[in-house]
TrEMBL record:
<feature type="domain" description="Fe/B12 periplasmic-binding">
    <location>
        <begin position="43"/>
        <end position="303"/>
    </location>
</feature>
<keyword id="KW-0732">Signal</keyword>
<dbReference type="Pfam" id="PF01497">
    <property type="entry name" value="Peripla_BP_2"/>
</dbReference>
<keyword id="KW-0813">Transport</keyword>
<dbReference type="GO" id="GO:0030288">
    <property type="term" value="C:outer membrane-bounded periplasmic space"/>
</dbReference>
<comment type="similarity">
    <text>Belongs to the bacterial solute-binding protein 8 family.</text>
</comment>
<keyword id="KW-0406">Ion transport</keyword>
<protein>
    <submittedName>
        <fullName>Iron ABC transporter substrate-binding protein</fullName>
    </submittedName>
</protein>
<dbReference type="InterPro" id="IPR051313">
    <property type="entry name" value="Bact_iron-sidero_bind"/>
</dbReference>
<dbReference type="InterPro" id="IPR033870">
    <property type="entry name" value="FatB"/>
</dbReference>
<keyword id="KW-0410">Iron transport</keyword>
<keyword id="KW-0408">Iron</keyword>
<feature type="signal peptide">
    <location>
        <begin position="1"/>
        <end position="23"/>
    </location>
</feature>
<dbReference type="GO" id="GO:1901678">
    <property type="term" value="P:iron coordination entity transport"/>
</dbReference>
<dbReference type="InterPro" id="IPR002491">
    <property type="entry name" value="ABC_transptr_periplasmic_BD"/>
</dbReference>
Length: 303
């Protein structure tokens, strides 16, 4: 009899502790500070490609995503989840119909957080600023805690960190680089303080030009500017390709006498990055890992 009472007491304590844990909720670091969520969500709507990338890697329960994520590696997710608008304009009615436990916005959809919060708890997980990798890995850890996938998040972070070290070793002593984004016939340069600047800072890859403005869409430059800078390496991002536009390809835009005279072009030290991974889903753990793989392959193939 006494044994039965002890068992019953232990069970009651366990239930009470479980209830207390649920009552405490889950504290998540967001772009707007720490947010307390009521518990682990069972149905999530994701309105940011980087967040979708990392959550998909964690096998999170994603019920809705924008109708177009642009990133090829997220096509399976897009096929399975319900369409809920675009990266810029959420479909509030479609989201409400899904009755999500949590809505995750960020980047292009971050301005809609207040409106989305009228449907369900909504958080802003934007990744922006010079500490791109630090923020991205912080998001990975937060998502791991949020979904109960802490161990998987640790494995993904460890694999990324190992690849980062390999990429840093691969570019060491290989000269400077210039990051260019083409948009049809237009060209912009991105420096260490830009959205793509982690390719310089995290890899210890010197800039060909150190005074580039850190503008959202890069600093517009001429082919004469590129020729005068004479970079050892060119790292190319084709914006039109990233968002599915049929504009002039980057390789065509840059195929002229001024660019051809640079050290990078002459030595075939030109690295083309998957634009959707670095531009649209930048900050997602899968996208960042894929970008590092492209850097490794590009520097291995270059002169």
């Amino acid at each position: 009899m006494a044994h039965r009472k002890i068992v019953q007491l232990a069970a009651s304590i366990a239930v009470a502790l479980c209830g207390a844990a649920q009552a405490q909720g889950i504290a998540i670091d967001t772009a707007r500070g720490v947010v307390e969520l009521p518990g682990q969500p069972q149905k999530i709507v994701v309105l940011d490609a980087a967040a979708a990338d990392t959550l998909e890697a964690l096998q999170a329960p994603i019920a809705g995503v924008p109708s177009q994520l642009y990133a090829g590696h997220l096509q399976d997710l897009q096929d399975k989840a319900a369409p809920v608008g675009t990266l810029f304009e959420p479909d509030y009615e479609a989201i409400a119909m899904l009755a999500p436990d949590l809505i995750i916005a960020g980047g292009r959809s971050s301005a809609r957080v207040a409106a989305l919060a009228g449907i369900a708890p909504a958080i802003d997980m934007t990744i922006w600023g010079e500490d791109h990798i630090g923020q991205s890995l912080a998001r990975l850890r937060s998502y791991g805690r949020l979904t109960g996938q802490e161990a998987r998040a640790e494995d993904l972070e460890a694999a990324f960190t190992a690849k980062l070290e390999r990429a840093r070793a691969a570019v060491a002593g290989r000269g400077n680089a210039m990051i260019l984004m083409t948009n049809g016939p237009k060209v912009s340069v991105y420096g260490a303080g830009s959205r793509f600047g982690w390719l310089h800072t995290a890899l210890d890859l010197p800039e060909a030009v150190a005074s580039v403005d850190a503008q959202t869409h890069g600093e517009a430059v001429s082919f004469e500017f590129i020729a005068a800078a004479d970079p050892d390496w060119l790292i190319i991002i084709d914006r039109a390709a990233a968002i599915g536009q049929g504009n002039q390809a980057a390789a065509v835009t840059l195929d002229n006498a001024l660019v051809a005279g640079t050290t990078a072009w002459r030595r075939q030290q030109v690295v083309y990055l998957d634009a959707a991974s670095v531009y649209v889903a930048g900050g997602g753990i899968q996208a960042m890992t894929a970008t590092l793989e492209e850097v490794l392959a590009g520097f291995a193939a270059g002169g």
